[in-house]
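Structure (tokenized):
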């Protein structure tokens, strides 16, 4: 209708009713609306959680730390293993990206030199002089086999920083073997 007023709108709706151009509308019950609202909120939260997890992966990837495939229950523990102590002490690879150039260099060497040196020396001693078995040493030896001894030492130094930090926070002693499940 050209002129919209309440009276004209009422007349138009009455005319539609007389002509039968309407369909009955189903109104959902209040419990059905509540369930639908809960499902919508759940889907929203799941999407946000997924976005946050991918964001954390991307942030850590910038420091050369890869999360890899982990189950939902192990995600938090894996992130705690990769906490930002390596980058803090400069034990992550430096990165150069510009246009088509993308190379990964040696360790960035930012942060405290003395701590980085102590961690690297501890990793060197653990790989070369310590004869007692530990899961950390076995892990580093696998890396040495795949990527070389120098990279294994840096990786072990970074992992030692995380382990020492966790021991400090938990006031725990070093465990040579993994805890029995």
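Design, position by position:
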């Amino acid at each position: 209708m050209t002129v919209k007023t309440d009276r004209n709108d009422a007349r138009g709706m009455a005319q539609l009713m007389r002509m039968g151009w309407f369909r009955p509308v189903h109104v959902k019950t209040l419990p059905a609306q509540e369930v639908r609202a809960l499902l919508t909120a759940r889907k929203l939260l799941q999407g946000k959680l997924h976005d946050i997890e991918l964001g954390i992966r991307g942030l850590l990837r910038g420091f050369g730390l890869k999360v890899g495939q982990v189950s939902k229950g192990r995600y938090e523990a894996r992130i705690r293993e990769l906490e930002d102590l390596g980058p803090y002490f400069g034990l992550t690879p430096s990165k150069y990206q510009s246009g088509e150039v993308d190379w990964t260099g040696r360790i960035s060497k930012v942060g405290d030199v003395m701590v980085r040196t102590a961690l690297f020396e501890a990793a060197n001693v653990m790989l070369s002089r310590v004869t007692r078995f530990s899961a950390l040493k076995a892990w580093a030896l696998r890396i040495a086999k795949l990527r070389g001894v120098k990279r294994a030492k840096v990786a072990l130094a970074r992992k030692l920083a995380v382990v020492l930090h966790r021991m400090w926070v938990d006031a725990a002693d070093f465990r040579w073997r993994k805890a029995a499940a």
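Reviewer-requested clarification: The chain has two domains: 32-82, 84-181. Residues 32-82 form one domain.
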